[in-house]
Design a protein that fits this description.
- This protein is an alpha/beta fold.
- The protein has 3 domains: 69 residues, no CATH class; 59 residues, no CATH class; 173 residues, von Willebrand factor, type A domain (Rossmann fold).
- The chain contains 12 helices and 10 strands.
- A hairpin with a 3-residue loop joins strand 6 and strand 7.
- Helix 7 packs parallel to helix 12 and helix 9 packs parallel to helix 10.
- About 2% of the residues have low confidence.
Length: 368
């Protein structure tokens, strides 16, 4: 019975995975999963299911329920109720939600977009200690008692002493029979990553553009968290000046004024120098903007900061350009021209929510 239940559950999970993969672009574009997100799971809305219901047919033969009257006529002795609203002629709609872990969601994303597993750069200096159970010992806490080993020891003693048959096959372990699992502390490398999101919050970046960034950041986080044991995420917003903010402020702040992109890159560089030594951290700066910068001189400053400061410290630098009514889109052209042959710079054009999935593939498809 247990094996049959496990088999049915496995088939159900395969059906769920197939449904998610089929509609992954829609799930990403509408952003509904983020509203259903818990600490470790996400509720996925599945296709509607049809519940069984009686339906009037055209059977003209005799039998129970046949006779005078029309469908819908009340049965004798019943009173009409005082229902609210008008009666409808359509069946009710029912939606099934299935919980999927963020780890499994990341796996589905990786399979659908054919994302390679990330290979951390350099030698990892950050380590963690884990307890690995490697043997058996005769003392220990009750929570680590090895029941099978204890019973085998007691059974051997009973048989050797000749008491097994006399006791009617009952085996009662003694303190000398007790066996416990033992462990050895083991130091293992701990891959760590720092994600630094930067976003233009000048007047030309509206709510729709911020929503696109919010959705894309959710999926980027989901994938990178499946690749690293430790993740730290920081947020920088900028117009003419840059400042660090929390996650909620990052996605909801609305300001106006000019745009000076170099201010964000300078703050990002200072943040890396202060908190994330490149020899110990895998660093991922992501910058989102509509492509406007206040002057060509500041764009030149940005290119210098990237070439001399940010790129040598980062695994990869990603720039996503979100289209807006007022944005010129020039900054992406400047980056493409300056770093055309540099694989450390990846740029993406995000015209609308349907373009988020393609942007994610461009950013993460290099496996770096």
């Amino acid at each position: 019975m247990v094996q049959k239940i496990d088999l049915d559950h496995s088939r159900f999970r395969d059906i769920v995975r197939g449904s998610i993969r089929k509609d992954l672009r829609r799930h990403i574009a509408n952003g509904s999963l983020m509203a259903r997100r818990g600490d470790k799971t996400v509720s996925i809305p599945m296709p509607r299911i049809q519940l069984p219901r009686f339906k009037y047919g055209t059977n003209q033969g005799g039998g129970v329920g046949q006779g005078d009257g029309e469908p819908g006529d009340p049965v004798d002795g019943e009173q009409e109720g005082e229902g609210q609203g008008e009666a409808g002629d359509q069946a009710g709609e029912h939606e099934l939600e299935v919980e999927v872990t963020l780890e499994e969601l990341a796996k589905i994303l990786g399979e659908e977009l054919e994302l390679p597993n990330i290979q951390p750069k350099g030698k990892r200096q950050v380590t963690s200690e884990i307890n690995k159970y490697t043997g058996i010992r005769r003392t220990g806490p009750g929570s680590l008692r090895h029941i099978k080993r204890t019973f085998k020891r007691a059974l051997k003693r009973e048989i050797a002493s000749g008491n097994f048959e006399n006791n009617g096959g009952i085996v009662i372990p003694t303190p000398d029979d007790m066996r416990y699992r033992s462990w050895d502390p083991k130091t293992v490398p701990q891959s760590s990553a720092a994600i630094i999101y930067m976003m233009d919050v000048s007047g030309s970046m509206g709510d729709e553009q911020k929503e696109i960034v919010r959705i894309e950041a959710f999926w980027i986080d989901t994938w990178l968290k499946s690749q690293y044991r430790q993740i730290e995420t920081r947020y920088i917003v900028h117009d003419a000046e840059a400042k660090e903010v929390d996650q909620h402020t990052f996605f909801h702040l609305r300001e106006s004024g000019g745009t000076k992109i170099s201010s964000a890159y300078e703050l990002c560089d200072a943040m890396i120098d202060q908190h994330y030594p490149p020899e110990e951290w895998n660093i991922y700066p992501f910058h989102f903007s509509d492509g406007d910068n206040w002057s060509g001189g500041d764009t030149a400053r940005c290119l210098t900061l990237l070439r001399e400061q940010l790129l040598p410290k980062s695994n990869v630098f990603c720039y996503g350009q979100v289209r807006s009514t007022y944005g010129s889109g020039q900054f992406k052209n400047d980056l493409d021209n300056a770093f055309n042959d540099n694989e450390d710079v990846i740029t993406s054009d995000i015209p609308d929510k349907d373009g988020i999935m393609d942007s994610i593939k461009m950013f993460l498809g290099a496996g770096r």
